[in-house]
Amino acid sequence: MNEVIELLMERKSIRAYEEREIPQEIRERILESAIRAPTAGNMVLYSILEVEDQGIKDRLVETCDNQPMIARAPLVLIFLADFRKWMDYFEVCDVRVINEMKGIEGYKPGAGDFMLCVSDALIAAQNAVVAAESMGVGSCYIGDIMENYEIHRELFDLPDYTFPVGLLCFGYPTESQLRRPLTTRFPRESVVFKDRYRRLDRKEFHRMYSEMDERVFKGKYLEGCNNIGQHYYKRKVTSDFMAEMNRSVATAIKLWCGEPQY
Amino acid sequence: MNEVIELLMERKSIRAYEEREIPQEIRERILESAIRAPTAGNMVLYSILEVEDQGIKDRLVETCDNQPMIARAPLVLIFLADFRKWMDYFEVCDVRVINEMKGIEGYKPGAGDFMLCVSDALIAAQNAVVAAESMGVGSCYIGDIMENYEIHRELFDLPDYTFPVGLLCFGYPTESQLRRPLTTRFPRESVVFKDRYRRLDRKEFHRMYSEMDERVFKGKYLEGCNNIGQHYYKRKVTSDFMAEMNRSVATAIKLWCGEPQY
């Protein structure tokens, strides 16, 4: 196993940080590694917000489902799906000649553009995670940045055709975070399928969740729950934050794609 | 610069492969590294299809905008956003008791679930890319897997609440691919903003695209185009494949989220 694989296999999310700044040089390496990530058609369909303003960090704690670590992270990056930049550039480049050539009225970004931008943003984010890890800087994704779209639009001056798809907190791990064991993952046969998708049966599900059950839950589920499925269903899937995320993302997609043409 | 950063900074997409299998052990390391990637709430909201059937690879060449390298890649992985597995598991776990407890009728996945699944899938995909690279295996993303949703559903037996968001081709790079210089990237100041989003002005756009113009285009744009904006607008944005991707993704999101509730 080489050093890179070792890093990928041992990386865990870090949610508590030492009170210690991340030197500018290391911040820059993280950002440069993100920017070198593969990007669709080399179009770089994303932007990164480097959040330094403590007031904004404090506000994010509230808008991202009350996660105080955001306020304490020495480096906070928001990865934006961004087609606005190209739309503005097309204006600068006067693409009306192409519209005339093709006999079209203009271009309105759609769900495909949205997803290409989202892909670029997340691929770059994971490069930032790996780069940070290699320099001893821990990280944690906050998907809750997809909630409260309207508030984040205002907070970050986000124009149409931008969408904050991921937030990453970075910092040096505390001792106790370093000692925390790796979380379990599902066995490969429940994640990887040959050639075609295959729905799992009851027995396979039992195997899939057994290690998590033994190592993490040990029979202790949320009140009123008797298994992992009920636990997650109660705690996450039917939670208020999930309802908010569903609403927020649907609103953002609608604004991006216009009235659904389908 | 450590070895990991060096790898991230020097990685480029590889589109032509030596005729040489990837040993099973290396395939497994790639998959394991993907599966260790961070995942929302440790829910592993994705699946990976390992495509080995040559007939399916050949078909993908056509359905992914005619890219013959898919047929020639010794390893093809499709990353699926997947909430189906959890929905099936909830059924096995009999979550009706939670519905009664919460006074709800049941749960219908929404746009938030879709995006969490998409995020998990892409983050895992990038881990696979980095892992492969560290073992001398090149890779290339094919976003076109998001086109032709209906065809891919049938081809891969995809049930509701799954969506193929990324395809990765892997293989040992040919000599000429190894010699190919790194593509340019936009300068950091046009990708990273402090605290708030900022739209770029004409002068900034000029700086942003100048290296790409000098090194890549050298004044040679698509017929009828006079600058990079017009070139990309004609070649990519207003292309048939982009129209198809917009249609396909919109269809998939509609099926996943139901009639928009917004």
From TrEMBL, chains A, B:
* Any one GO molecular function term: oxidoreductase activity
| Source superkingdom | Bacteria
Give start and end of each Nitroreductase domain: 9-172
Write down the InterPro entries for this protein, in alphabetical order: Flavin_OxRdtase_Frp, Nitroreductase, Nitroreductase-like
Q: Which UniProt keywords apply?
A: Flavoprotein, FMN, NADP, Oxidoreductase
Q: Which PANTHER family match?
A: OXYGEN-INSENSITIVE NADPH NITROREDUCTASE (PTHR43425:SF2)
- Protein family (similarity comment): Belongs to the flavin oxidoreductase frp family.
Q: What is this protein called?
A: Nitroreductase
